[in-house]
Request: fold
Amino acid sequence: MAKITNEKEVTAEFIVAESRQMWAKCRAAFAGGLEFGDTDGANQLMADLRREHQEFCTSYPIVMRYMAEMQTFAPAALTKYLMKIAEHPWTNEDEYLESQADYVSILFRETNSRWDSKKVASVRNAVLDALKKERADLQSLADEVTDRVEENERRLKNRSRADLREWLIKNGGARSADAAAQQNNPTTESTTEPVTEPAAAKPVMPPLLDLAKSLRAD
Reply:
């Protein structure tokens, strides 16, 4: 979970000033041809922002993401958000996601003055659901990678046993090889299963970006 961490105390005014610099870079990228929905281009822009504004992006990732990926920003919304989290800081991961949804609802209220409270609340709930789904998807991907790593470790271990048995057959006889195999793993036969690279994850549209596209179509 991201945390607000700054090497030195900074004011809200300082943070907003830095956000304006970041927004200027985003607008330059948009003027240069970066279109909404271009996930590769947005990812590159976000990588640049993280490199150049590391502490800001660590502390306020949703702000940076809406700048670069959703192409939406309002300094007044960030100011109100900073005031809100100063009064009500999050203390766990669920509250952190709630806080991210708070920012988006404040942002939409600032940039869509004709929206009533009911519609803003609806957007907040939709954003929170999207963020929770993204969290679940990331956890699922992490679990899948862990399973693949463990499977490859098992195959490497079995390959090592097979290599040892082959060496013993050549140098000490089949009986010695069988004894060594039983000592290493008395219940499992040696195999020579190939070790495979983890398959690349299928590209999916982040739920939050998908939601943003639907809102732009309204």
In short: Residues 1-8, 186-192, 195-205 have pLDDT under 50 and may be disordered. The two ends are 32 Å apart (CA to CA). The chain has nine helices and no strands. Residues 117-171 form the longest helix (55 residues).
